[in-house]
Design brief:
The structure is a single chain. The chain is of the alpha+beta class. The chain contains 24 helices and 19 strands. The strands form 4 sheets. A 6-stranded antiparallel sheet has the order 2-3-1-9-8-10. A 6-stranded antiparallel sheet has the order 4-5-6-7-11-12. Strand 14, helix 9 and strand 15 form a beta-alpha-beta unit. The radius of gyration is 25 Å and the shape is globular. About 0% of the residues have low confidence.
């Protein structure tokens, strides 16, 4: 994880050194090991270095030659294969940092180099002869890249704050995006849209190019799909491929590190897979994998269950883990929230405090790279919620009967209930989806959404409706029995998102966040796996249980289908804090927010006994107001 930034002018002026300096200063936390920039008349490019791998000691960016200038925030995971394709001697390859290898690839193949490289990357190349600046973001968007296109110039950077270092880049929230944040529908944004006016994101799997005349072109070079090499194989092949492909996705992130790595670990199927596959690499390095586990409040229990038995099981069979269990004290949800806004580069997800705590502990342990298991359940470890409905639709009644009985046994529920809720209800018309989810006991999201609408003011209600027009369909629009389509949709949504979730906050702690399940190779294998292998014997994660039987604790072979250990802040939110009522009263006196929220309703919800969706909605309203105020204040500064 490093920083890249730059400016291209269209008005005949040269790029000012002071502008590049301000951009670099805004990204100094991403470049603790040095910063360099170059000005080439109407173009200026800069790089801030953070050394994570051994080859980073050789970095000297910007890289120049053959009329090209490159800056990159990149980790290339197929260095040896690239070296062979480029006819590089082993000694020459060993002496090349990733940026130099990437430069050689671009100089050889141009933009088509994206078909050859694997890894996490965001890079920019200025081609002086063509007068063209090209920005590229990796397949699943694990590195971030933002830009502003104005009338007189174009600017790009790894974080939005560096764009705001330039006086002519607007600092303004988009009202429709405030509504999307409040209603948790950020995934429905138009591709490339951010919260802010005049600031766009390069989507994952995309190239953005700008000519000397200021004309902008954008195209996708990759979309999630099955690798043909993995299609139409037998079960033994997929078991082997699971171990090989995911194993390499983990190993390539670890084998070149200068120091220890950290893993945010819930001890479920996804993080236990990463932890187990990391064993040979970290053991050979004489290190431990620092595994940070969030146990919620003082009692060590989360809303989804108790992680401690699963952590203990992993500790027993994975001696290479340094498991550190973290808890938090209940606090006013708004206490210190402005610092979290700054760390996340925005309002952040519902796990903002928890993630911030975990990242701080990863840094304190000496790590510069942190992994998590995000993406496992929609790549190689699918939950397979529609598996029984799929069997029914295809008329495979013998297999259906067998799986219903097995699901009844493993889930300890009556057969009639399995058949009613996992076969019949899964095939109900989509108009009945909300009713179906409530019957299945999964109505929490629906209750929260209803509560969010209750506290809306007329302006926010209008903005919500406007933001919903033309929005791309959500995952819930896909029939439950079409499980692979749901995986593809989820992967594409992540690839197109404006930024990798949690990555800006990780960077604020000097960490490179990377997700093995978002490796391009893992996604392309997952989309080739037959749906018959999602669920067997009443249990999901079938391939994981088979492929990692010797690495997983034995308890995972019979573990149920539910997830535990979600990274959420509920355990450390004091929703009865007296400060919340005072804050609601204060916000209600501010005329500009009257159209956004019904603060009388907010106050009544806060005063209600117990913890409810209404109380969470009230707190989210106050959080939204504080974010708007914080943003306005940061602009004034």
């Amino acid at each position: 994880m490093s920083a890249i930034y730059g400016i291209q002018r269209f008005d005949g002026d040269a790029v000012a050194a002071s502008d590049l300096e301000r951009m670099g200063n805004a990204l100094r936390h991403r470049g603790p090991d040095g910063r360099r920039s170059t000005r080439l008349g109407a173009v200026g490019l800069g790089h801030g270095l953070m050394r994570v791998t051994g080859e980073d000691a050789l970095e000297a960016q910007p890289v120049r030659g053959r009329g090209l200038t490159l800056v990159a925030d990149a980790r290339l995971d197929n260095r040896e294969a690239l070296g062979e394709r480029l006819s590089l001697a082993a000694d020459d390859l060993a002496a090349m940092p990733d940026s130099a290898l990437l430069f050689r690839a671009f100089a050889t193949w141009g933009e088509a180099c994206v078909d050859e490289i694997v890894g996490d990357f965001a890079f920019a190349v200025w081609d002086a002869a063509a007068g063209r600046l090209t920005l590229v973001r990796d397949h699943m968007g694990q590195r971030n890249l933002f830009y502003h296109r104005g009338d007189r110039f174009f600017a790009f950077a790894s974080e939005i704050g560096a764009l705001w270092a330039l006086a002519d880049v607007p600092r303004e929230l988009l009202d429709e995006e405030i509504a999307r944040f409040f209603h948790r529908t950020a995934d429905r944004r138009p591709e490339g849209r951010t919260l802010y006016s005049g600031v766009e994101a390069v989507p994952g799997g995309s190239i953005v190019a700008i000519g000397a005349d200021g004309r902008l072109e954008r195209r996708r070079y990759w979309e999630p799909g099955a690798d043909p090499a993995h299609e139409a194989r037998d079960e033994a092949y997929y078991v082997h491929a699971y171990r090989r492909v995911l194993g390499e996705a983990v190993a390539c992130r670890l084998r070149r590190l200068r120091g220890p790595a950290a893993l945010l670990m819930s001890a479920g199927f996804d993080t236990a897979a990463i932890a187990g596959l990391a064993g040979p690499v970290v053991t050979a390095q004489g290190r431990k994998l620092v595994s940070l586990s969030w146990l919620g409040g003082e009692d060590g229990r989360l809303a989804g269950g108790d992680l401690r038995p699963w952590l203990e099981a992993c500790r027993r069979v994975m001696p290479h883990l340094d498991i550190r269990e973290l808890r938090g004290e209940p606090r006013d949800p708004l206490d210190g929230v402005e610092r979290v806004f700054g760390a996340f580069g925005g309002p952040g997800p519902g796990s903002r405090r928890t993630l911030d705590l975990l990242y701080a502990n990863a840094t304190a342990a000496g790590a510069r790279l942190v992994m998590d298991g995000f993406g496992g359940d929609y790549t190689l470890n699918p939950r397979g919620a529609g598996a029984l409905a799929r069997l029914a639709r295809r008329g495979r009644l013998g297999r259906l009967a067998s799986e219903v009985r097995a699901r009844s046994r493993t889930g300890r529920v009556p057969i009639w209930r399995v058949f009613a809720f996992e076969v019949l209800a899964m095939q109900a018309p989509r108009a009945l989806t909300r009713w179906q989810r409530r019957l299945r006991g999964a109505g929490n999201d629906a209750r929260l959404e209803a509560a969010l609408r209750e506290v809306e003011g007329p302006r926010l209600k209008t903005l919500r409706r406007r933001s919903a027009r033309g929005a791309p369909p959500g995952r819930e629009a896909i029939p439950a029995s079409r499980m692979r389509d749901a995986i593809r949709h989820a992967a594409l949504s992540i690839s197109r998102s404006q930024q990798a979730g949690g990555s800006i906050a990780a960077a604020s702690h000097g960490l490179d966040l990377t997700r093995p399940f978002h490796d391009k190779r893992v996604v392309e294998l997952a989309l080739a796996v037959p749906e018959d292998l999602y669920v067997r014997n009443g249990l999901n994660r079938y391939l994981a249980r088979q492929a990692l039987a010797d690495l997983y604790p034995p308890e995972l072979q019979t573990r149920g289908n539910a997830n535990e250990g979600a990274l959420i802040d509920q355990a450390i939110l004091d929703l009865d804090s007296p400060g919340l009522a005072a804050e609601a009263a204060r916000c209600g006196r501010i005329e500009r927010f009257a159209g956004y929220f019904d603060f009388d309703r907010v106050a009544r919800n806060l005063a209600a006994p117990g913890v409810s969706a209404r109380k969470h909605a009230a707190v989210r309203a106050l959080l939204t107001v504080r974010f708007i105020e914080w943003f306005a204040g940061s602009n004034a500064g």
